[in-house]
Amino acid sequence: MWTNWSGGRECRPTATVRPLDDSGVSGVVRRAAQRGQAVRPVGAGHSFSALAVTDGVHVDLSAFSGITGSGGRPGRPTVRVRAGTTLAQLHAELADRDLALEAPLELAAPTVGGALAVGMHGSGSSLGSLSAAVVGVRLVDGRGRLRDVAAADLDAARTSLGALGVLLEAELAVVPAGRVRVTREPRPVDEVLDAQFWASHPVVEAAVFPSARTALTRWVDPLPEHAPESEDEDADGAEKAEKEERERTVGVTVAGATGRTALGGAVVVERALPRLVPRFNRAVSRLARTVTATGPMHRVLSSPPAVRFEQTEWALPRTTFLEGARELLTALADDGLEVGLPVRLRVGAPESGWLHPAHGRPTGWVAVRVPRGTDHAPVLERAWRVLRAHGGRPHWASRSDWTVEDTVAAYPRLPDFRRVRDDYDPDRVFATPALDAVLGD
Ligand SMILES: Cc1cc2nc3c(=O)[nH]c(=O)nc-3n(C[C@H](O)[C@H](O)[C@H](O)COP(=O)(O)OP(=O)(O)OC[C@H]3O[C@@H](n4cnc5c(N)ncnc54)[C@H](O)[C@@H]3O)c2cc1C
């Protein structure tokens, strides 16, 4: 039995195979196609949607790990990385080469193949997702053929939902490694719901509880190459200090309750007392301490979640982002819906990927998270209604009620994607019910 990270999706594949090389993947696809079985590559299972679910063959790419080479030209370096590489490993191997990803991605476990398939993003007005860094893709198509995706089709392959084939390797544009300073600070919600806030730093985000007046914010600034060592705490120290501060403020110690990093991470409750949640949340929102830390971007942003949750995240046009976020917070508060975790707000640059939710428009991301063990349906359904009404497109990895009719209406380059899909997977070996539901057959 396979289960995703949140525990909300499971399936029983006919087989799970772990090929060791490119020809192994080709063989798996050919044999499955002959038997009429579906093939589904699977990464770390960190998607909340059913994209990785199959009753066919799961292809585990964990043997396809690591950076295999570098290239690019002076000032524009690239690396080739295998699809099963986790982001933690990618960050570490890049750091060994004095390189880094430009996208501020904070999660360790997702694989390059999975993160690209769904268009994994961080937060920054002019920063793209991991998909935006793709300059080349090698995959095994639905006939078992090894193919390097042509430049003209790259915008289909950079965010493909796994519909084109099993990605083996991607060439990614990277940047020189550098140190940054991250600042975490409470700010009035009204300030966060103003466009100026989002242009204030290269990496910036906020987390807001529906009825709170204070938002928890986090931003990142680059440090000059020879900046003197500062008084800042290092990343681990800052996280510890933040946790202690929250525990002191809240003044309660609940077994199983934990206050990890408020942004990105969790604030409350796994097994704990639901009635404490609102109190805890309000207290967290009143925190008055600024915490800074310096280090490489992936280290200072790292915030492993302390509780499991379900999530819906939508990409709104930047023009409706703040109005949509405000309306969502009001709707959740008015309906008395307890989210348990703050609504997370982030921004991103327009994406060229034909199926990336930020395709063609500056984007504001709105994520609603509900801890596992609570009834997530009323909260998520309320969020879908508001975010859809503001022109949102759901993150492919998140829970949503999105349909193929929505995709047709919201993605102008869908016909181009379908043309490439017909070429790469004419027999629909990689189709699943979840893919059919949003892409059609
Ligand atoms: C705690 C948590 C925090 C998160 N934070 C963020 C965030 O900050 N930003 C964000 O954008 N997302 C976030 N997500 C969602 C997450 O980015 C995606 O779920 C993740 O990137 C998917 O990677 P994975 O390896 O887990 O893929 P899986 O979930 O296993 O698979 C996802 C899709 O990718 C396909 N796939 C996997 N490998 C391949 C391959 N080799 N070739 C072709 N297709 C493949 C699968 O078939 C499936 O369709 C978060 C999720 C969690 C649980």
Q: How would you describe this structure to a colleague?
A:
With 441 residues, the chain is of the alpha+beta class. It folds into two domains: 110 residues, 2-Layer Sandwich (Uridine Diphospho-n-acetylenolpyruvylglucosamine Reductase, domain 3), CATH 3.30.465; 216 residues, FAD-linked oxidases, C-terminal domain (Vanillyl-alcohol Oxidase, Chain A, domain 3). It is built from 14 helices and 21 strands. α12 packs across α14. It is globular and about 60 Å long. The two termini are 27 Å apart. About 7% of the residues have low confidence. Pfam families: ALO, FAD_binding_4.
Key phrases:
Vanillyl-alcohol Oxidase, Chain A, domain 3, binds flavin-adenine dinucleotide, 2 domains, 441 residues, FAD_lactone_oxidase-like, Uridine Diphospho-n-acetylenolpyruvylglucosamine Reductase, domain 3, alpha+beta, D-arabinono-1,4-lactone oxidase, Oxid_FAD_bind_N, Vanillyl_alc_oxidase_C-sub2
